[in-house]
Structure formats: structure tokens, C-alpha cells
Fold this protein.
Amino acid sequence: MSTLTAPSLRKNGKQWHPPRTPFRPTPTLTHYTKRLSTQTASAATKRKERELKAEKEGERQRKIQGIKDRREQKAERERYERMAETMHKKRVERRRRREKRNKVLKS
């Protein structure tokens, strides 16, 4: 005579644990394939994170470059204004054009 109980009630009283099944290894989900799938998933997320970080850093560098350009233009404008106080207007304009030509030639 065997005593069969309902699958919801366990003999030792551990009803909160899932029912155990006997170990039968299957070739479909080995540790290697599980590890490989998790590695590919984590690699994809890391790649996406790197792309987002690079995009954010590029945006930050563009903002910084814009600030630097504006400061440089302001300093140049102030320098020409100081020159205009001591020199004639035409002479200042000639110097500005010459410096602009030299800057284009250097770059």
C-alpha cells in the first residue's frame, strides 16, 4: 500500500519550496550555453551603455567648445576695441583682415 498525497502538500511540511524533481541532465541547456547567452546579453548592454556615454560626452564636448569659441571671440573683439582707441579705424580694419588671412593660412 502506497500513500499518495496531493502534490501541493509535501511530506516534510516545506510547502513554501517548489517541488523537487529528479536530476536528469539535458543537452540543450548546459552551463556553457547558459553562460554564453548571459555573456552575449551583457555584452550587448555594455555596448549600448558605451554608445550612450560616448554620445553624452560628445554633447558635453560640443558645449565646452562652443563656450571656448565664444570666449575667444569676445577676447578678440575687446582687443580690437582697445586697438581702436589708439589707432585709426582703417588701420584697425587692415590689421583685422591681415590677421584673418594669416589665421586661414596657418590652419
